[in-house]
Amino acid sequence: MNADQLRELQAPIKQRYRDDPSTARVVMHASGSVQASQLTCLVDTSIGQVTAGLHPAAGGTAEQACSGDMLLQALVACSGVTLSAVATAMGIEIRSANITAQAEMDFRGTLGIDKSVPVGITALELEFAIDSPAEESQLKKLVELTERYCVVLKTLAQPAKLTTKLKAKG
Predict the structure, then answer these.
(1) Taking Cα atoms as reference points, which of 142, 33, 125, 119 lies closest to residue 72?
(2) Rounded distance between C-alpha atoms, residue 164 and residue 106, angstroms
(3) Which terminus of the chain has fewer CB atoms gathered within 10 Å of its CB, N or C?
(4) pTM value?
(5) What is the per-residue pLDDT across 94-143, written as a single tens digit (0 to 9) for each?
(6) What would the pLDDT profile of 152-163 be if each residue is shown by its tens digit?
(7) Per residue in 21-69, pLDDT tens?
(8) Is residue 79 within 8 Å of 99, Cβ to Cβ?
(9) DSSP string for the chain
């Protein structure tokens, strides 16, 4: 796809959102079924179910997907798709590009060993390795715009308001 094709594809969508901003609001969903006896959760995806389990550092076997890894995978996927779209819009040729996400976490927090240790990821690093004939300044702008428009990256950098609900049964 080239820049003109991308603009042609997105033009009617953008116009609809300008004409009626309420149509730009989309509610996304994810769901899963807890398998308590196995300490897993079957997560529904568009291509089937994924079994998520404990990370080996928390007692898992590494036979199931780890939700922390899935978070990093979502960050890489969103960054890659965004990078592709932005490069196309900018007319930057990408011969190849690889994105790597790395996170640091101290499992003493999630295992309740030390209450002073935060639960969750405390440091994230995202690396873009891009092979392109473009000038370095163009590639820096490409990465800057990818950071600006990547939904997952922005959500991690500026967390959304989060609420939890309980629907107790029987």
Answers:
(1) 125
(2) 24
(3) C
(4) 0.90
(5) 999 999 999 999 999 999 999 999 999 999 999 999 999 999 999 999 99
(6) 999 999 999 999
(7) 999 999 989 999 999 999 999 999 888 999 999 999 999 988 999 999 9
(8) yes
(9) --HHHHHHHHHHHHHHHHH-GGGG-------EEEEGGGTEEEEEETTEEEEEE--GGGT--SSSEEHHHHHHHHHHHHHHHHHHHHHHHHT---SEEEEEEEEEE-HHHHTTS-TTSPSSEEEEEEEEEEE-SS-HHHHHHHHHHHHHH-HHHHHHHSPPP---------
Q: Distance between CA atoms of 146 and 84, rounded to whole angstroms? A: 9
Token pair for 92: 């930057």
Tokens of 74: 């979502």
Structure-token pair, residue 91: 């007319």
